[in-house]
Amino acid sequence: LVARASTIPHTPAVSESPLRLHRASGDEARQAWELQRAAFDLPEGGPPVHPGLSDELRVAVRDGRVVSCLTLVHAELLLRGARVSLGGIRHVATHPEEQNRGHASMLMRDTLAAMRRKGFHTSLLFPFSFRYYRKFGYELAGNHAHFWSRPHAIPCFSDRDACRPAAPADPPALAALHRRLAGASGFSLTRDEGRWARVCADPGLQTIVHCDAAGEIDAYLVTAEARDAYGGLMLRVLDIGAETEPGWRGLLGRLAAFPGECIDWMASATELSASGLLRSAAPLREAYKPRAIVNIRPMLQFRVIDVAEAVGRLLPTFPRERYTLALRIPDELLPENGMPLAVRGVGTEVELGTPRPGDPTLTADIRTFSQIYCGYTTPTEAVAQGLADASTPEAAVLADRLFPRCDPFVCELDRF
Ligand SMILES: CC(C)(COP(=O)(O)OP(=O)(O)OC[C@H]1O[C@@H](n2cnc3c(N)ncnc32)[C@H](O)[C@@H]1OP(=O)(O)O)[C@@H](O)C(=O)NCCC(=O)NCCS
User: Fold this and answer.
1) Which of 39, 44, 57 is nearest to 97 (CA)?
2) Could you report the per-residue pLDDT of 126-167, keeping only the tens digit for each?
3) Nearest CA residue ID for atom 22, ligand 1
4) How many Å lie between the centroid of ligand 1 and the Cα of residue 189?
5) Does ligand 1 lie within 6 Å of residue 101's CB atom?
């Protein structure tokens, strides 16, 4: 998200009264929206939809004037099959005449404390600057693979005949399929039937499903048409998911049949590999090189807000054996997270408790722990880079089993 020059009228404060930081009330919400609209070139009708269940505007106010603001999206993450609450941060904006005075920083620190009070376990954002949000304990935790190709470089599989536009009765089956795929991927924002119904009914989107021989939906594709930088018609893939080979072939067949210039897809590396497009079976047209372009770019930053609660949510995913792993996670901005914690497998149960002297221990600051928690990096990889410390080699191996790697990713449809 890149800032634009803004022309919001501004009257300098007569005296420097203290900043007040809180959830926006009526007129403050209007002022905050004007700031966000100007900073991000947002449509007049209201903020773009997000994948959360609700949201709130948080503001820094001086003498009744909003000088800085952000939106906190109340969303939910499915992490290794466990439901974890997630506060999404978006549209951070400071009045152009008030910038570089620490207002957004104060608001971010206050929002971290507010998220913890409100019971959020984790937080996620798509930063304009990774360096800026590292100060607040966020760390890079996901990349996207920006895939581009001509439609003819995608195989025109006949399985596309089993595809059709989504129908009003499809959201329950789509929500169930999305849940299964989210469980298998290890990291996904949740999407309930209501959101699927809104996606299917959105006139700006095309939602296509593929059905198996029994008529059950086993793959879906959500796209939007757009113009590329040269005015050519392009198909943007906003989300795609398939749990069978025929499903993938059906969706690729649909993409291949697109009558425009190109296909543009922000994919996870895992999905791109599963799709088969990295070894496209489409006949080669030698004049066209390359067949596709893929750029890997950093995408999201993640932060654990409440270490004990967040780890507690994952207990059902931990092995049912006998072991102990103590966690020490220093956190300057939320010092409560620094309280040592022990994960204890006691055979058929796993519990959280207080560590005892000599327990195998993993120590990592909140940024590195956030990467480990969401599966972006493994404890062993963190130790091998000097970013974490394991009291014994066994402690690192055990931590790898509790926090296995996955591929954190948020599709374009769920960007906020
Ligand atoms: C980015 C923004 C929110 C910062 O607000 P602020 O109240 O000035 O922030 P602070 O005073 O707390 O921090 C200023 C820091 O942000 C940095 N910064 C500002 N704009 C930046 C940019 N586009 N890229 C990288 N860093 C930037 C400043 O260099 C400064 O860094 P420092 O702390 O190392 O000196 C404000 O510049 C703004 O509203 N920009 C337009 C909207 C926007 O781009 N938002 C992005 C967030 S989603």
Assistant:
1) 39
2) 999 999 999 999 999 999 999 999 999 999 999 999 999 999
3) 129
4) 27
5) yes
